[in-house]
Structures are given as C-alpha cells and as structure tokens.
Write a structure and sequence with these properties.
By secondary structure, this protein is an alpha+beta fold. It contains six helices and 18 strands. The chain folds into two domains: about 110 residues, Rieske [2Fe-2S] iron-sulphur domain (Rieske Iron-sulfur Protein), CATH 2.102.10; about 190 residues, Naphthalene 1,2-dioxygenase Alpha Subunit, Chain A, domain 1. β17 and β18 form a beta hairpin. The longest helix has about 35 residues. It binds FE2/S2 (inorganic) cluster (FES) and fe (ii) ion.
C-alpha cells in the first residue's frame, strides 16, 4: 500500500494577508527590497561566468564580463522568457541560448543575430539592478534603483584596510523561512541544541531595546566555553561573559568584548528557502593548548579549518533544527502560540512591520485588502 502523505489533508500555511496572528504573519513575510542584499560569494562568479540568484521569488542573472565587471539583470529573455542563465557570457554581454539575442549589463538587447524582417533594430530591455562587492560578497540593491543611496552596506571597519581581521565568509542555503533563522541566531535559549560544542551557555538576557529598525540585546553568557571552542579563544584576555547582539534590519550581528564578532546577511528566496552569509571574525585566536596567538599569515587557512571543524558543525546543528521547525510549522501553523523569550517577539514584530511598510509603499497591502473584501462580499 502506498504510504499516506501526512500533509495531504492539511491546508498550507496562510499568506501574509490571510494570517491571523503574528507568527503566521512573520512566517509569510518577505523582506523589504530597498536594502542591499548579499547574493553570492565574490569568488563564485569568474570572468565571463553567469549564475542565477533569487531574491524573494525573483530570479536574477548575475554575470561578470570579460573586463571583470559584475552585472545583475532580470533572469528572463525579453523574446520568449527563457532564463538568461541558461545562456553564456560573451565579452560584455549575456547571450540567450535560443535565438542568440545578446544583453548588455543594463539589460538592453544589443544584438540579434537573425533577420529583423525589414524592421529597424528594436528597443527591448529587461530591468537591471545595482551591484557592489564588499567583504568578499556580491551585493544587489533589489528595490527602487533611485533609492539605492538611501541604504548602505553595513560598515565593518575591522574588515577593511591593511590591518584587517581575518574573515572567511560561510554561506548555507536552508529550507526555512528567513525569520526562523533570525530567531535562531539571536535567541540563546537553544544552548541545549549545542550542548556538545557549547558556543554559548547559561545565557541570561540582561536587556533589550527596540530603536527604529534595530533590536539590540545583551546576554550574560559563557561564550566559547565548550571543549573545542575554548581551545582557540583566549578566555583570559577576552571577556567572554557577555555578548551583545542586534537585529539591524535586515541584518544581524554580534559582538563579544570587541574581540569576537559576526554579521549574518540573509537572502530570502521564498517562504521556505533562505540563503545565509555569515562573516565571523576574531581579533586574535590562540594556538590550542598554549597562550600564543595564531600568527596573521596562517589565520586564513586556520579559519578555513575552523569553519569546517567547528562553525560548520554548530551551523549544521542549527540547520537540522530550523529545517525541522519549518516542517513543523507547515504541519501545525494553526497551533497555539508558545513563546517565552521577549526578544523573539521583538524581531518578529520588526520583520512584519518592515514588510507591511513595503507593501503599503507599493500598494500591495491595499490591493490585497480590496481583493479579500471583494472575495468575502462575493461569498456573502
Ligand atoms: S528566447 Fe531568447 S533569444 Fe529567443
Ligand atoms: Fe545555534
């Protein structure tokens, strides 16, 4: 007998406008596109290469031309709507594989290698997005291009200049809504999950504050006290008893005694898929079993190893839990709310408010409300 699909008779979670409580809302919310979003590791796009990146269900062809310059254009041929990422980069242009139409970095069709049937060269164009590279990441401004200067990529002075701290970006794509990932990284009540590596433990929330679009919070906790992490963190010279964190929409960061820091940049792909880019950076790490600092020249290979052996393992524990949370949510989205940590509510409220702001600006909220009204009057 065929196995019964346990989800077969369960309605899918509600959309943002159908949602009845804040949890249902936050798990359906997108992210406001009027920010710079990290979309790919710089090293992953070589010269004359193209990759597909997705921001909230919108596919983008990201390509690097022969001169090394990056371009982001809508991933759609204006002719028959093929994904342009199925084509290739030729010099400065991205060429569609079907009829060979070539697009420049602004998304303009600049070459059509077949008959124009006596017409003059047509003006076809797909939208393009501003692109920047910083901290080893490629960033795209997904919103209204005229507003690109209103937002900026976070300033991380430690990662710039000749004396910069070592940092090897880590990225991962998880089957989970972006709000679950933001909850996960700032809510230290899940020390239980990491009881093997103990990246933090005995966390007490000592305060939090919401200011504008930022939630700041602070924990008294034992940072890096686990058997593996304490080998590398010099707990005598770094005060590892407190950690400050923030959800600085749409980014998240932490700081331990100005010595151990991280940023997390999420790329919302859809309601159940999120790519995360983590930058972990340390002023200094020590050689295990000694008090000597790891010399700068070997920090990079060391960080690669640490990412694999420690950070990767901890993140994998989070991945398993958060993906299971997504699965649980899809099955039980109507279960009663049960949340104890007040900062989780603060993050969720911020995510909801920013998405509502975006919908209000684009008319999305009004349109959806009218649609709902029309539907309910039609059903009356
Ligand atoms: S479909 Fe792209 S060139 Fe025709
Ligand atoms: Fe975690």
């Amino acid at each position: 007998m065929a196995k019964r699909d346990p989800y077969a008779d369960k309605a899918p979670p509600p959309s943002f406008t159908e949602a009845r409580n804040s949890r249902q809302k936050v798990r359906a919310a997108g992210m406001n596109p009027n920010y710079w979003y990290a979309v790919e590791l710089d090293k992953n796009v070589g010269k004359e290469e193209v990759v597909e990146v997705v921001f909230w269900k919108r596919s983008i062809a990201l390509f690097r031309d022969v001169h090394g310059e990056l371009h982001a254009i809508e991933n759609r041929c204006a002719h028959r709507q093929l994904k342009l990422t199925t084509g290739h980069v030729d010099g400065c242009n991205l060429v569609c594989p079907y009829h060979g139409w070539a697009y420049d970095g602004e998304g303009k069709v600049v070459d059509i290698p077949h008959s124009l049937f006596g017409r003059k060269f047509p003006k076809f164009q797909v939208p393009s997005m501003p692109v920047q590279v910083r901290y080893g990441l490629i960033w795209i401004f997904m919103g209204d291009a005229e507003r690109q200067h209103e937002a900026s990529i976070p300033e991380i002075p430690e990662l710039e200049g000749p004396d910069r701290w070592t940092c090897v970006p880590v990225d991962a794509t998880w089957t989970a809504h972006h709000s679950m990932i933001i909850d996960n990284v700032s809510d230290f009540t899940h020390a239980y999950l990491h009881r093997r590596y103990e990246p933090f433990k005995d966390a007490e929330l000592t305060g939090f504050e919401v200011q504008g679009d930022t939630v700041e919070l602070e924990y008294d906790t034992q940072v890096g006290a686990g058997k593996v992490s304490s080998l590398f963190v010099d707990r005598e010279s770094v005060d590892t008893n407190q950690m400050k964190l923030a959800y600085e929409y749409p980014y998240q960061r932490s700081n331990t005694d100005d010595q151990i820091k991280h940023w997390l940049f999420v790329l919302p792909i859809d309601e159940r898929t999120t790519r995360s880019f983590y930058l972990f950076y340390f002023k200094a790490l020590k050689v295990p079993f000694t008090r000597f600092r790891i010399p700068r020249p070997v920090m990079t290979p060391f960080m690669h190893a640490a990412n694999k052996l420690l950070v990767g393992k901890i993140l994998d524990e989070d991945r398993v839990a958060v993906e299971a949370e997504q699965e649980g949510y899809e099955m039980h989205w109507d279960a009663p709310l049960a949340e104890l940590n007040p900062v989780v509510k603060a993050f969720q409220d911020l995510t909801i408010r920013k998405w509502e702001e975006h919908l209000a600006e684009t008319g999305g909220l009004a349109q959806l409300k009218t649609k709902k009204k029309t539907e309910s009057s039609a059903n009356a």
